């Protein structure tokens, strides 16, 4: 028995010897997903170099502690960089992955997420909000039945400006705020007058949750952040608090001390769609690519265009004052819109808790920019028009 067993082991021993000393089989080459390496043209490179120098000089002149910028053009992120420091008085530099709070720039995420679900048939722009959300009731029962999703997202429900924003800032949940709209006298018929909202706008979160049986933050992550590979984006206080690469907010203290750091607050994480998203410049570059029509697997250009269609006119220069010769702007669904002498600009700004953000893009020209800073300053608004005027003249 022993001899027979030894003979039967010989082939196995030979095989093991071969595996140990034989040349490994060559690996199958992996195809290059983008074999043509893109090279930036000299004119664009020169412009971005100039932009960087002038932007940094402006930050220093305004004594802004830190900033981050993303610029897209023709379906590519052509510039993303951090400037300054995360916290005044400390050496940690801002980079393209440093997380800031977005404030009301969060509103665009809610409208795009709604558009994704419109395409799937879960929601309809023209459906009454009360048909999805029973607790959404206005002072006028007939108007309650007429206010549609598009009215909610364009701030034209008829509620007065900032109705119950104070309750959002006090930390009340949307479940406690929404039923109170019934107590507020209306100022206009739906669709007739824009009156900017935070609490009412955020009711869209509850609509989407009801229609998908999924909480809003999970929807953001699964339908937007993950497919776009927005790896540093989140929508909670805990997320930004746990981030090792986050900018701290600052407020102006005095002429001698300038801006001083403050703590990150919990405000607006109870109404994420109005001001609770956190993101970096590298995240916002990917977001701008989607907004300019370069993520058709997530949302179609046709649905984006519907969001960018003006629904309400803003008859003052507050949002167009930095654009030469542009005297008024409009609001679509989650986005402000203006006509820069024939160039359609879609944009939004945000301020919360010592952070300021501005995002703007020209969908037809494929150009966009997002600027994030860790204090409150109008400086981003001063910078942005020059970029679009440059590419507008270049394309004419």
Topology:
Layout: H1 2-21, H2 42-62, E1 66-73, E2 76-84, E3 100-101, H3 107-119, H4 129-132, H5 141-146, H6 149-153, H7 165-169, H8 174-177, H9 203-212, H10 216-225, H11 237-242, E4 250-254, E5 258-261, H12 272-275, E6 278-279, H13 281-291, H14 301-307, E7 312-314, E8 329-331, E9 336-340, E10 343-352, E11 355-362, E12 367-373, H15 379-395
Antiparallel strand pairs: 1-2, 1-12, 3-6, 4-5, 7-8, 8-9, 9-10, 10-11, 11-12
Helix pairs in contact: 3-10
Care to describe what's here?
There is one protein chain. By secondary structure, the chain is of the alpha+beta class. The chain folds into 2 domains: 42-105 and 232-395, DD-peptidase/beta-lactamase superfamily (Beta-lactamase, 3-Layer(aba) Sandwich); 118-209, no CATH class. 36% of the residues lie in helices and 17% in strands. The chain has 15 helices and 12 strands. It has helices at residues 2-21, 42-62, 107-119, 129-132, 141-146, 149-153, 165-169, 174-177, 203-212, 216-225, 237-242, 272-275, 281-291, 301-307, 379-395, and strands at residues 66-73, 76-84, 100-101, 250-254, 258-261, 278-279, 312-314, 329-331, 336-340, 343-352, 355-362, 367-373. A hairpin with a 4-residue loop joins strand 11 and strand 12 (367-373). Helix 3 crosses helix 10. Mean pLDDT is 91; it is low at 1-35.
């Amino acid at each position: 028995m022993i001899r027979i067993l030894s003979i039967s082991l010989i082939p196995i021993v030979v095989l093991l010897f071969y595996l140990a000393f034989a040349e490994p089989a060559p690996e199958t080459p992996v195809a290059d997903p983008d074999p043509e390496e893109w090279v930036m043209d000299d004119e664009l490179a020169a412009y971005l170099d100039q932009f960087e120098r002038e932007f940094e000089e402006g930050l220093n002149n305004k004594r802004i502690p830190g900033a981050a910028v993303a610029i897209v053009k023709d379906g590519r992120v052509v510039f993303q960089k951090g400037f300054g420091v995360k916290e005044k008085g400390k050496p940690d530099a801002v980079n393209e992955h440093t997380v800031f709070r977005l404030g009301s720039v969060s509103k665009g995420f809610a409208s795009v997420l709604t558009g994704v679900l419109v395409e799937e048939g879960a929601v309809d722009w023209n459906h009454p909000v009360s048909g999805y959300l029973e607790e959404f009731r206005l002072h006028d029962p007939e108007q309650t039945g007429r206010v549609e999703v598009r009215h909610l997202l364009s701030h034209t429900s008829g509620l007065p400006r900032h109705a119950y924003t104070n309750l959002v800032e006090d930390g009340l949940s949307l479940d406690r705020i929404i039923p109170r709209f019934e107590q507020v006298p209306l100022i206009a018929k739906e669709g007739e007058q824009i009156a900017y909202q935070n609490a009412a706008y955020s009711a869209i979160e509850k609509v989407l949750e009801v229609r998908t049986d999924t909480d809003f933050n999970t929807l953001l992550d699964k339908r937007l952040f993950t497919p776009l590979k927005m790896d540093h984006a989140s929508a909670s206080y805990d997320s930004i608090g746990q981030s090792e690469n986050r900018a701290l907010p600052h407020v102006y203290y005095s002429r001698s001390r300038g801006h001083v750091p403050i703590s990150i607050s919990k405000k607006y994480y109870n109404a994420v769609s109005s001001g609770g998203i956190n993101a970096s410049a590298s995240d916002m570059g990917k977001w701008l690519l989607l907004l300019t029509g370069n993520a058709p697997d997530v949302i179609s250009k046709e649905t984006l265009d519907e969001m960018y269609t003006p629904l309400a006119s803003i008859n003052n220069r507050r949002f167009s004052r930095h654009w030469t010769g542009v005297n008024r702007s409009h609001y679509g669904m989650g986005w402000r819109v203006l006509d820069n002498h024939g160039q359609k600009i879609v944009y939004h700004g945000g301020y919360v808790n010592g952070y300021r953000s501005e995002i703007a893009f020209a969908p037809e020209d494929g150009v966009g920019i997002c600027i994030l800073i860790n204090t409150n300053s109008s400086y981003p608004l001063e910078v942005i028009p020059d970029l679009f005027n440059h590419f507008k003249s270049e394309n004419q």
